Amino acid sequence: MSLVELKGVVKRFGTNTVLDDVSMNVERGEIIAVIGRSGSGKSTMLRCINGLEPVQGGTVVVDGETVSAPGADLRALRQRVGIVFQSYNLFPHLSVEKNITLAPRVVKGIDPGTARELALGVLRRVGLAEKIDAYPDQLSGGQQQRVAIARSLAMQPKLMLFDEITSALDPELTGEVLKVLEQVAAEGMTMILVTHEMGFARRVATRVVFMHQGRIWEEGGAREVLEKPRTPELATFLDAVLH
Ligand SMILES: Nc1ncnc2c1ncn2[C@@H]1O[C@H](COP(=O)(O)OP(=O)(O)O)[C@@H](O)[C@H]1O
Ligand SMILES: [Mg+2]
After folding, report:
1. Which bound ligand lies closest to the C-alpha atom of 34?
2. Distance from the CA of 38 to the center of ligand 1, in angstroms?
């Protein structure tokens, strides 16, 4: 069974249909890059996958659990699905360690010693072990985003969703965050990431999904989609982001 199965998903806000019959399966270990213009439904699709948005039609199944069913256990789901946004959302008054261990301590009830070990472990994976006692405002934007990734990893998710996590960063900080993503991908994590970094998508993604007007307009291997657009909409989009 696929880790993620979207079948005929319809999402509306009032009369605005934002996801229009979206179907997609994601297998374990896949790295999906989602591209498309602003307003095409990329963020909404991610939010439907981790149950932040109810859907009006179709089904969303994650790790065998039907997210879209009434009464779905969304708390359990969100422990298995990590999501990282463009804004880091770190708590400014908490140290890096506390930011990372807050959820595991509350949700999984681990003791302080174990929590610190856990924080160290995930910080090593993002190359920031030495910042464990720092506060967010002592870190660069890139480092804060890496802490946000570490925080997500600390819940040992089966799937990670990334929504334009480098869009607010200067180019020189974008690179260090992409490197961390690439490493997490290499460790075998299943990831769906909305990105404008086409070079990264080409190098790392097992599949690229182009969204347009709430639909999956084109999808396929990274090279196929990025180098041989079959529709004028994708060609226009690529032209705009690559030039
Ligand atoms: N909470 C919301 N309420 C009403 N409309 C929304 C909401 N979230 C998103 N939308 C609308 O859904 C459409 C798709 O938005 P979004 O998924 O954020 O696109 P993208 O991430 O591709 O830029 C847009 O038209 C947006 O205005
Ligand atoms: Mg978005």
Report:
1. 1
2. 9
